[in-house]
Structures are given as structure tokens and as C-alpha cells.
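Ticket #4471: structure output looks truncated?

Reporter: J.K.
Steps to reproduce: submitted the chain below (267 residues) through the standard prediction queue, then opened the result file.
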Amino acid sequence: MKLARPLFAIGLLLMAAIGLSAWQRFGGGSVAGLQPYDESDQAIPSEFFFSRLRYNTGYGGGYGYRRFGGGWTQDFPRADHDCLVALRRLTRIDSPSALNVVDIDDDHMWDYPWIYAVGVSNWAFTDAEAQRLRNFIERGGFLMVDHFHGQDDWKRFMNGMSQVLPDAVVEDIPDDDAIFHDLYDIREKFQIPGEQYVATGRTYEKDGYIPGWRCIRDKHGRIVVAICFNMHLGDAWEWANAGDYPEKFSGLAFRIVLNYITYAMTH
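Returned output as attached by the reporter:
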């Protein structure tokens, strides 16, 4: 059985009347002043949940991913919350305000067809976990990965990814791919740095000088893993309303994630 994926008309994905740039200028990108998310909201049937993958870092023994503080927690919960605020205000996608953390060994994973994973140079899988994540993707799930930089991080990321999808081919996403045009028509892309940019003026970390908009596709050509390499979109969401973090980075980061969500739910 394929993983259930909510279906809805593309017309429901119209942006709200207020534009993204105006929303950011008037404080929409900040957690401050917003109603806190309601955990009870998670039980309400919805079209979409913003779900973050909680994984084992492989540091030491046991299941380190069950503890707060592993690589999966970076920018949590503020980045996820601010991204949800953008989703709820700028689209008509029905989504609860509650944040969602998904464990690979949790059967509820099948209820959430879009999952975000961060700091993926740190992840490690048992054979059983790799098989479950493979099943998730093969049943129609969509995985977005973010915030890893340089060749050493890439090698560690691919070590884990090759466990999950041994035959996967990673490719650059062409500019004319539907994923860049489903909701926002994204014609200009550039490296999205973390908050460290404010202090250093550098858009890169480690030796990750060139941003990589990459993907893995299924046998039908559909993108099933979206790879944000040498970038830190989570920081751009989290610091969207900080006066010293450039709006152009947050603006692109929000457009990218909203396009990725839209693509996953309509393809």
C-alpha cells in the first residue's frame, strides 16, 4: 500500500493577499508576539504536518536520537514554527500549528508524507531504520534535508543515504524543474547562509563554497529527496525577523520550502 498523501486542488495553494516580503517586514517571520503553538492541535485531521526527523547520531551507544541535543535538533523549535507560520499565512494549505517530531521506528511516520531532516552529516541508521526510511520514500514520502557543508559532510551524508537508497543517483535540480515553479516562480537562486553570516559576512561554512540544489528521484522521475547542500535554510527561517539578518536570504528560504511542500503534495 502506498503512503497516503493528501490530495487537493492546486487552486487552493493561492498565496494570501499579503506578500512574503511585506509579511517579513511587518514582523511575520518572528516567534515573538505570535500565539504559541497548541500541542492539542496535532490531533486535528489536517492536510499537512511540518514533520522533523529525529535520528540517531551514532555518537556513543544506544539511541541518542531520543534525547534532545542531537544533530536533528538544530534550530528546533523556532525554525519549524516560523516556517509553519509562513505556510499558514501565505497558502491555503490546512495545517495545524503544532510541531511534529517523527522517529524512524514510530508507525506514525506513515501518517506524515513530508519530513524535514537537518544536520544530516550526523545521521546514522541501523539496517532496520534504513529499511523503514526506504519504505517511507518508496511509498510516496518526501524527504527534505538541510544544513550540512563541505566535502566531509557530504561523504557522511551519502554514507547514510546509501544505506537507505543503495541505488540512488544524486543530480542537480535543473532551473526549469517544476519544483522551482509550482507555487513561486523561482528564477534566481543563491547560497542561503546560517546566522553566522551576520558576524562573518561569509555565506559558506567549512569548504562548502558552492550551494547545491540537488535531489534524488524515483523511477518515475519524481523528486523524493530534496537536498539543500552548503546552505542553512532552517537558520534563515528562524532569523527572518532579525534586523541584521538579510531579508533576501529568508525570502528565498521561505519560497523554497513552500515550493517543496507544494510539489510533494501535488506530484
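Triage note (M.O.): checked the attachment and the full C-alpha cell line is present. Residues 247-266 form the longest helix (20 residues).
Status: closed, working as intended.
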